[in-house]
Design a protein that fits this description.
About 40% of the residues are buried. This protein starts with about 30 loop residues before the first strand and ends in a 6-residue tail after the last helix. It has about 325 residues and is α+β, with helices and mostly antiparallel strands. The longest helix has 15 residues. The radius of gyration is 21 Å and the shape is globular. Strands 1, 2, 3, 4, 5, 6, 7, 8, 9, 10, 11 and 12 form a 12-stranded mixed sheet that branches. It is built from 6 helices and 12 strands.
Length: about 325
């Protein structure tokens, strides 16, 4: 008899495991995957992390948020036009003192704003007291590609803010894949939504059989943004096969021994931050400090309606 589970995530956020046959985990990744480094493929099984792994005294969690404020269009002198996206984004760091059980939003959280467009003539837009700096993108500037352009300056902001917050022997957890942050020491990327299928059906069975606090063996991704990576199940999931499953990453430049050590440190540290369904609609994957940081950052972005109106007034004369 088929067993059914209710996904613990609020459906308005999609699903933690996006198996829709499109870009979800049912679609195999094109990345080269090497699964034999920690254990041979025929010995893959859930791993209890080394309980002797040294927990860091301080965990830093960095996250960013972004928001599309308005879609704009230019009218060029030659009669052509280009789309432009006015967007706001922000980043900050939460410092978690594990010894004293204290989490603090560090000063230095910042907001940036940009006008993303391929227009060769666009200039900065002043919307009331807020300025949107032009960030030119390559290509034809299709509307569908504009939101993705916001990620690069947001990542730059996250790196700048988190680098200033580092301490000796801390652990930095960045929300999302590492990508261009692979050079940061003692850092793991935290991927809470699974959108690609990296493993064979046999090895995927190891993922779905994980108990809370257990991880899979490491495997290596050979894509442009290569990484050591592994799956971990957090406590508090619904019991569904992928409930509470997250994927973590660390730098591919680490040796396999260094990556295993970092994976064990993360496995005995990250689960303590797992959220509960009554607190967060994306529980348990949306970590409690991250949820609080996101709320603070969204408040810093300002009122979307006010900014949209200010942008409309600023461009009403058609000279932008």
């Amino acid at each position: 008899m088929t067993t059914m589970y209710v996904d613990s995530w609020d459906p308005s956020y999609g699903a933690a495991f996006e198996g829709d046959g499109g870009d979800g985990p049912a679609s195999p990744s094109t990345a080269q995957v090497e699964t034999h480094h920690e254990v041979p493929d025929d010995q893959w099984a859930p791993i209890d992390p080394d309980r002797g792994a040294r927990r860091p005294a301080v965990v830093l969690l960095v996250d960013g948020v972004r928001r599309n404020d308005a879609l704009l269009w230019t009218r060029e002198e030659d009669g052509t036009s280009y789309a432009g996206l006015a967007a706001s984004y922000g980043a900050g760091v939460v410092r978690c003192d594990l010894a004293n059980g204290v989490a603090t939003l560090l000063p230095g959280a910042r907001v940036g704003r940009g006008l993303f467009t391929a227009s060769p003539s666009a200039s900065d837009v002043q919307a009331g007291s807020v300025s949107y700096t032009v960030r030119r993108i390559s290509g034809a500037g299709e509307v569908s590609k504009l939101p993705a352009a916001v990620q690069a300056p947001l990542t730059e902001l996250e790196i700048e803010i988190s680098s200033a917050a580092r301490e000796d022997d801390d652990l930095l957890v960045v929300d999302g894949p590492l990508r261009s942050r692979r050079q940061l020491p003692r850092t793991v990327g935290y991927v809470k939504t699974q959108q690609r299928q990296y493993l064979s059906a046999q090895l995927t069975g190891v993922v779905t059989s994980l108990l809370p606090g257990r991880r899979t063996p490491l495997f290596k991704l050979g894509s442009m943004w290569g990484a050591w990576t592994w799956y971990l199940r957090l406590p508090g999931g619904s019991g569904a096969p992928w409930g509470g499953i997250v994927r973590l990453e660390c730098s591919p430049d680490l040796t396999v021994e260094e990556a295993i050590e970092l994976a064990d440190v993360a496995a005995v540290t990250v689960p303590r931050f797992a959220s509960s369904a009554y607190k967060d609609p994306r529980a348990p994957q949306n970590l409690i400090p991250i949820a609080g940081l996101e709320r603070r950052l969204r408040g810093m972005l300002g009122d979307a309606r006010v900014l949209h109106r200010a942008l409309a007034l600023s461009t009403a004369d058609g000279r932008r």
